[in-house]
Amino acid sequence: MAMTTTETLGFLEGLLQYLTVNQGTLAAKGLTVTNWITELETQRDTAVAKNTQQEGLKAQLRTLTHETETALTTVYNNGSTKLDAIIGVLGKTTEEGKQAARLRSDIRRTPADPPVVPPTPNP
């Protein structure tokens, strides 16, 4: 099971504290952990830096998403207003007006379902 960033860093901090406090006991049993501590601290620092960078990019993405949605809404509303003017000038009941109106209505219209072909019977 994968751990969250907080869980991973919490585990690592606990491990580093344990290794530091018990370094002498472990050395007496033949296990030197000095290099382990250095390695884990370096890896922790890299992970924290990458996570900080990632969180900053997430914040930028949220801001950019909002700005994009605003820009798309603005351009759609502007274009739709202009299309309404065109339809008004042409007349909504004229063929030209209906054709112009379809520019907007066809955007989400799903194509008609293809006709269902009955299966060929096996003799």
What does this structure look like?
This protein is mostly helical. It has one domain. 74% of the residues lie in helices and 0% in strands. It is built from 4 helices and no strands. It has helices at residues 5-21, 23-28, 34-90, 95-105. The model has no long low-confidence stretch (mean pLDDT 93).
Top keywords for this entry?
0% strand; mainly alpha; elongated; 123 residues
Quick overview:
With 123 residues, the protein is mainly α. Helices cover 74% and strands 0% of the residues.
Helices and strands in order, then pairings?
Elements: H1 5-21, H2 23-28, H3 34-90, H4 95-105
Helix pairs in contact: 1-3, 3-4
Content of β-strand = under 5%
Total strand count, please? 0
Number of helices: 4
**Low-pLDDT stretches:** none
Cα distance spanning the termini: 56 Å
Shape: elongated
Q: What integer is the average pLDDT?
A: 93
- Indicate the percent of residues in helices: over 70%
Q: How would a crystallographer describe the biggest sheet?
A: none
Helix/strand order: HHHH
Radius of gyration: 32 Å
Number of domains: 1
* Computed structural class: mainly alpha
